[in-house]
Amino acid sequence: MHQNGILKKEDNFSSWYNEILKRAGILDVRYPVKGEYVWYPYGLKLRNLIYNILRSLMDKEHEEVLFPLLIRRDELLKEKEHIKGFEDEVFWVTHGGSTELDIPLALRPTSETAIYPVFKLWIRSHRDLPIRVYQIVNTFRYETKHTRPLIRVREITSFKEAHTAHASRAEAEEQIKKAVALYKLFFDQLAVPYVITKRPSWDKFPGAEYSIAFDTLMPDGRTMQIATIHLLGENFARTFDIRYEAEDGSSKLVNQTCYGISERCVAAVIAVHGDEHGLILPPKVAPIQVVIVPIIFSGDKNGSGMEEVKEACISLYEALKEADVRVILDDSPERPGAKYYYWEMKGVPLRIELGPRDLNNNSCVFVRRDDFRKTQVSLNTAVPEVKKTLDDIQRHLYARAKEKLASNIINIEDSKMGKMVEMDELRKAVRNSIISLTLCDNESCGKELEDTLGVSVLGEVYEDKGVAEGEGSGKKRCVICTRSGSRVLVARTY
Ligand code: P5A
Ligand code: ZN
User: Does residue 467 carry a pLDDT above 70?
Assistant: First the structure.
């Protein structure tokens, strides 16, 4: 325990997380509907800064749309695989007042079946393609697993879903690559590290041909899926009869993709960077990047130099504001120490202390939230030094988190001819880390591994074959049946 009373996040992530959400003013979890939470003003500011980044990345090649929340039952049921995956998670609206509806309406669990019947109306010829749209909306899923603020909610308040339609499969696959690149840029700005894998067939999005996922590592060694990208191929096009007239006059089905991100990205920022003093926010998304704390002792309020300190703080504040830094001046009557704890809890990346002695040297003191390093900085260069320091904090947070992820991917050597890998060895390794091991493409081996160890197969690493490829270049052998297979990542998951 620290003075701030917060546990270490590695020791008990759940209590650490809930405590932080409350004390840093992110979410109020007391709303009396299971799986629904209230965004506090500070939490919403953080959420909006994160989503502004996402929005500006999306806007480069997508158009924003806004579809209704309610979906007719017959539309929702049309795509057989899709509804098989979602039927147990749908909230239904069955009545208008006391009148039973002719056609029950679903609260969207995701919007494929809301959007694709309309795509059918929008798409006539090859000239209408490609279509790339996105929306940021709330969606509803009747989650039966343990609900958790931002991580597993029943009302996803910040569901960014993109939907695209293309003339060919090759173009749809090209879009998958673009979406992966775009999500990389997004998480890079949040300083949230990730592994990207192709999900095993039994864990793909209902109705997709295949799914690619981003996962990050949580402090307790479990991974959390923070984004998914799906190749839908012609599956939904066939169901909803979405066709276009090709250049040669023939009628063809479109090829589709969809990809999504939820407020789990906010949870990831909190969980990956925070510590026992509270939040640590990457400067790019911090609602307050700098707090200035005047060092004025209550005894000497009118003592010598106090007015000058106040004035120096105000002029530094004005200069930083002018330079587009999100800065506040905390001139409340609290003691400086109490202010430090408060702003540390809120994750403000940089604190500037300025007292009479500093002013005599024409300087101030920078205290970084990421490593608590203190430096004396001349007031003449304070503004550029703030910018430099914020950039450095952003970089350092990402480097530190990436290093932590990389050092928590454990390679399990392939089973030797005839000899199985010990399950106890795997169980131990996967307790706090992601493990990389070989599995054959037999679904039963994957399922057996998952059930025995209580883990999930994340899948084969997508693209970046440098990560966790395992030792040796020889034939790779399945840890369950020793037949030949390929390397996959496996972890306990949220
Ligand atoms: C892609 C967008 C889809 O729904 N349809 C449109 C596709 N994919 S998904 O994987 O089912 O969801 C996308 C991401 O949303 C997050 N997520 C959740 N976050 C919080 N609470 C939930 N109950 C929840 N369910 C899904 C995951 O990060 C998922 O990858
Ligand atoms: Zn096998």
Answer: no
